[in-house]
Structure formats: C-alpha cells, structure tokens
TrEMBL record:
Protein known as: Meiosis-specific with OB domain-containing protein
Organism: Parasteatoda tepidariorum (Common house spider)
Domain of life where this protein originates: Eukaryota
Family classification: Belongs to the MEIOB family.
Keywords: DNA-binding, Meiosis
Residue intervals of the Replication protein A OB domain: 156-228
Ranges where the MEIOB-like N-terminal domain occurs: 1-135
GO biological process: resolution of meiotic recombination intermediates
InterPro entries: MEIOB, NA-bd_OB-fold, OB_MEIOB_N, REPA_OB_2
Length: 322
C-alpha cells in the first residue's frame, strides 16, 4: 500500500487507496501511433489525504473501459492495483482539461494489467471525510455579486465559487452538432451577495453525484468553473468543464456561515409565465410586509413579490416628510 505522497515512477506493483472526487465521461480518442484505429479513455481524480490528489486515466478498448466506467462513481473509495506511475507533464496539451492536483505524477490504468475495486465498510471509512475537504484557499473564492455585476470582467473567466443550492434540476438528453448524445443538468445556487445564479453541468457522472449528495440549501464548493454570458436568458451563468470539481458541504468556516444564512433566508419566488405571458410572483399583504420590515431575521434585499393594494395617499410633489 502506497500513499499518493509517496508515489514514484520507479515503483511497481503499487496498491493505492483513495476517494474519487471527480470523474469525466468516457471518451473516444483517435490513435496517433496507428491512424485509423481508436482507443477509449476514462479520467478521474483521486484523493487520499487532506492535501494529496492525483489524476488517473484508464485506457483500453470500448467494452473494457465502458465496463470499468460503470463499476465506480464519484464519492466511491477505491483500491487501485498495479497502475503505471508516470511523471506529469505540466506543459502537455491535455493538462488544461484535467482537474488541478497536488501530485507530480499521474496514474495510467489498463484493464489487462491493472485493477480497480470499490472498497466497503472498514476500508472505506477512513477516506470518506476527504470528499468534504476544500481543494482551494478561501481567498481564491469569488462572490456571486462580483460575477453578476461585473460581467465584462467576469466573462470567460475560470473561477471558484462557494454557494448554497437553491434548486436542483433534472438530467436532460441533448444531441450535439456532431451527433453525440450527451447529458446536461441545471443547478440554481445563491450566496449572501446574490439570490440566484444558474450553473449548467455537462455529463451524467457529475449530475448523478450532485443528486445523490446534495439537496436544497446544501453548500457546494465549485472549483474551476467557467463564467459566460447567456444570450438566451440575458444573464451571467456558470458552465462546468473537465477541470471542475464539486465539493459537497466543505469543511471550512465560510461554508458553515453560508449554511446558517441559507437556512434562515427566505428565498424570493422565481417569476414564471402563464399562457398570457403575464409575470406572476408571490403576493404579500401589507401586514406581512410590515412584519418583514420589523424582523431582525429577514434580509429585505432578498424579498421580491407583488402587493395588491389601493393607493390612499400619493405625494406627487415629493414635499411630504411622511
């Protein structure tokens, strides 16, 4: 048994334990060495301590990699036997499409020579906590207000977010321009600075992970997510990529503060449109509004809605002090 920190390219027959913190979809790669042939690859990221992470790639024929892909998911603790340990080439073109890791090595896994098994019970217990460890310093986290209200600067940036979940969507099937079937999934989130921000998640692996581990008002640390302007909704939005890692309920003080805020904050109702395209939102009485004003637990900036009332006095000249 070897830890990620102890890895060396000179090691052979190594056995490595860790928890899967990210996993991409299986991809087809055209072989450079043998034109006209293709291989399949499955990438994932492993963690075995508070600080140590490493990327791994499984290479092989379609059936073998497809079978391997269904054998484990994000959040599983796995045992990897006899991987090839190679030095990571930081300048390699594919590095920018992988999550950032601490190890100077990466693991190459071939189904014929290596083995991945999912751990149970006692073997799993000591690694489960690492799923909630932060992968970024709190100083690297950006607030949603900075993204939404500084859109010219934020456009195209890769950033880190600490957010609470407002709404979890459903997984949808989408056909790409080149005919591939892919999965997409929308997540609505918020923080203390802004009530709603949409995130588009590509890939069934990450979507299933969030559905399994999260619920409304759960806290998420999202690292390396891309920010773009959505022309259809006319707002800024986040889009995940192969570098993105989701950390549910991260074990950091700022996450606990955000959780307390999320649990006591009344979220504004989303505006919807009926058949006549008329905006409909939550309707409040004057009594309810007065309670909001005098409440110490409500953030008035988060309250949006409709009031049906008769105007009994209107100082059109604006000279009244009352």
């Amino acid at each position: 048994k070897v830890s990620i920190r102890e890895l060396s390219s000179e090691l052979s027959q190594a056995i490595i334990y860790g928890i899967i913190i990210a996993k991409q979809e299986m991809r087809r790669i055209d072989s450079r060495k043998q034109p006209g042939t293709e291989r399949y690859v499955l990438n994932f990221t492993l963690r075995d301590s508070l600080t140590d992470t490493i990327n791994a790639a499984c290479w092989g024929e379609e059936n073998a990699i497809s079978k391997l892909s269904t054998s484990f998911t994000i959040g599983d603790v796995v045992k990897i036997r006899n991987p090839q340990i190679i030095e990571r080439q930081s300048a390699a073109s594919d590095e920018k499409f992988k999550p950032s890791t601490t190890s100077h090595y990466q693991l190459n896994i071939h189904p014929l020579y290596s083995e991945i098994t999912v751990c149970q019970a006692d073997e799993r217990r000591s690694y489960e906590k690492f799923l909630h460890c932060s992968t970024r310093s709190i100083s690297e986290i950006v607030s949603l207000a900075d993204v939404v209200y500084d859109c010219q600067t934020a456009e195209g940036l890769i950033i880190n977010l600490l957010v609470a979940i407002r709404e979890i969507g459903t997984v949808q099937n989408v056909k790409t321009k080149d005919g591939r079937e892919v999965k997409k999934f929308q997540l609505s989130v918020f923080d203390q600075s802004h009530p709603k921000f949409n995130i588009l998640i590509w890939g069934e692996e990450t979507a299933n992970f969030i559905i399994k581990y999260c619920q409304k008002r759960s806290i998420l640390l999202i690292t390396d997510i891309k920010i773009n302007y959505n022309a259809f909704t006319k707002e800024m939005a986040g889009t995940t990529g192969n570098m993105t890692i989701f950390t549910p309920d991260p074990d950091i003080p700022d996450a606990r503060v955000l959780y307390q805020y999320a649990m006591k904050t009344a979220l504004p109702a989303d505006k919807i449109k009926d058949s006549n395209s008329t905006d409909v939102s939550t309707t409040y009485t004057m009594e309810e509004i007065l309670k909001f004003i005098h409440s110490t637990e409500m953030n008035l900036d988060e309250i949006q809605g409709t009031v049906n009332a008769i105007i009994s006095f209107f100082d059109i000249d604006g000279t009244s002090n009352t």
